[in-house]
């Protein structure tokens, strides 16, 4: 025997559970032989068992919904990319290799520099960090032409190279964007520009043609420039 349960029961649930509290219990004709002993249906083990079954079923439904939501989210995979500009060219780099976007700092040249890409060192919060030219590494045109605006401010990207952080000056930072992995997969199979130096693909973004850099190849090139 059970008492009145304040749960929403579907038709299938109602068929599976005998709601005797509504037939012969306190909400029925009160003909149940156990009613005298328990006074109220809520004190009966039958009521407790029915409530437990409903709660267990609800928990299972919630788990199924959560699993379904996770599956949908997994199907829409994205990757975070930092968009920035060098001269007239827009590029993208995976944020997993990015440490920080910092204000532009003075670069101090070094005597007998080891490579053309090594510009010198910059002071980053009291520490001297090697500064490299992405223009040189990527084989880009040396022109610094690009959008002119008072709001455009050059920045330095601090990236995590294999031997430690390095900084690279850039002309403008657009921001970090989550890009659909399907778009990136298509970009990696794109045209001739995808075979450019340290490039995984070319993709359209906000009306621009964006060069998506291969961070592993790029970081390897950075390491070679420092040794």
Characterization of the model:
By secondary structure, the protein is of the alpha+beta class. The protein folds into 2 domains: 11-75; 78-226, OB fold (Dihydrolipoamide Acetyltransferase, E2P) (Beta Barrel), CATH 2.40.50. Helices cover 29% and strands 32% of the residues. The chain has 6 helices and 11 strands. It has helices at residues 11-16, 35-38, 45-75, 134-138, 181-187, 215-226; strands at residues 78-86, 89-94, 98-103, 107-108, 118-124, 127-132, 155-161, 164-170, 172-180, 199-205, 208-213. The strands form 3 sheets. The chain has a 5-stranded mixed β-sheet with strand order 9-1-2-11-10. The longest helix is centred in the N-terminal third of the chain and has 31 residues, at 45-75. The termini are far apart.
Describe the SSE topology.
Layout: H1 11-16, H2 35-38, H3 45-75, E1 78-86, E2 89-94, E3 98-103, E4 107-108, E5 118-124, E6 127-132, H4 134-138, E7 155-161, E8 164-170, E9 172-180, H5 181-187, E10 199-205, E11 208-213, H6 215-226
Parallel strand pairs: 2-11
Antiparallel strand pairs: 1-2, 1-9, 3-7, 4-5, 5-6, 7-8, 10-11
Fraction of residues in β-strands: 25-35%
Structural class label: alpha+beta
Number of helices: 6
How many discrete domains?
2
Number of strands: 11
| Assembly form of the protein | single chain
Radius of gyration: 32 Å
CATH topology of the largest domain: OB fold (Dihydrolipoamide Acetyltransferase, E2P)
Average predicted local confidence, pLDDT: 76
> Between the first and last Cα atoms, what is the distance in angstroms?
82 Å
Look at the structure and name the CATH superfamily of the largest domain: CheA-289, Domain 4
Q: What is the H/E string?
A: HHHEEEEEEHEEEHEEH
In the sheet with the most strands, the strands line up as 9-1-2-11-10
Main sheet, how many strands, which sense, barrel?
5 strands, mixed
């Amino acid at each position: 025997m059970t008492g009145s349960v304040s749960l929403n029961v579907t038709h299938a649930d109602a068929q599976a559970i005998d709601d005797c509290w509504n037939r012969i219990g306190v909400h029925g004709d009160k003909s149940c032989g156990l009613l005298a002993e328990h006074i109220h249906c809520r004190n009966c083990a039958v009521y407790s068992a029915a409530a437990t079954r409903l709660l267990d079923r609800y928990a299972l439904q919630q788990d199924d919904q959560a699993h379904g939501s996770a599956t949908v989210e997994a199907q829409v995979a994205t990757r975070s990319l930092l968009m920035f500009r060098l001269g007239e060219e827009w590029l993208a780099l995976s944020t997993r290799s990015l440490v920080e976007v910092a204000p532009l700092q003075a670069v101090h040249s070094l005597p007998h520099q080891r490579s053309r890409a090594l510009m010198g060192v910059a002071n980053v919060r009291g520490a001297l960090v090697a500064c490299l030219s992405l223009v040189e590494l990527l084989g880009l045109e040396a022109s610094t032409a690009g959008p002119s605006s008072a709001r455009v401010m050059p920045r330095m990207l601090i990236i995590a190279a294999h031997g430690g952080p390095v900084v690279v000056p850039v002309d403008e930072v657009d921001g970090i964007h989550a890009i659909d992995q399907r778009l990136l997969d298509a970009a990696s199979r794109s045209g001739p520009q995808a075979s450019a130096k340290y490039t995984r693909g070319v993709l359209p973004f906000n009306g621009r043609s964006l060069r998506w850099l291969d961070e592993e190849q790029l970081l390897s090139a950075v390491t070679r420039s420092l040794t």
